[in-house]
Amino acid sequence: MRILSSLLVMVFVPSLVCLSCVGNKARPGMSESEILSAITQIDPWSGNKYTEESWKRLLAAAEGIRDSDPEAVERAIAKFIKKTARRDDNVQQWSKVFLLLRVMFELPEDAPQSDAKFFGGWLIPNRVQKVEGSVNLAWPIEWNNGDPRLVAPYSGYQGTGYLAQFEYAYYLKKYPFRRFKLE
Prior knowledge:
This protein is mainly alpha-helical. The protein has one domain (about 30-175). Helix content is about 45%, strand content about 5%. The protein contains 6 helices and 4 strands, in the order αααααββββα. The strands form 2 sheets. A two-stranded antiparallel ribbon has the order 1-2. It has a two-stranded antiparallel ribbon with strand order 3-4. α2 crosses α4 (about 70-85), α3 packs across α5 and α4 (about 70-85) runs antiparallel to α6. The protein is globular. The termini are far apart.
């Protein structure tokens, strides 16, 4: 019986170890370098016009990245932010991730203010509240029949950094991924 118990432990322990990573490591999707490349190819947020081609790139990136290992996504986002931090156009580069996260997740447009966590200094107009005492976490993107659109031009950034990887981790724990079909 002792030999049988040892065999059972040898057989089941690796299974238990793998069960702890089912949600992460076993996921299909992009590698860390592919995630970094996809983010780089997203067009920045500047005006309130985003071309059809820009939306296609953003949605394709979101679709590939949302199906990737969350740890790889966090590392890639952190690397992208760090890599672009000293550039003259750093905020424009960071806006790629800002838009990406608002496309990847089903963010409420009328969340309680207690759910609003700010990870960067994006200047958000007060008028984005749809309901008194709430905050629109999806801003500046609005969805209409499955189609996204920018509802506001880029209006500025105040501060020194964008903690985008922490924003991703927060949204990952709190909100489901948005599902959409690419054409």
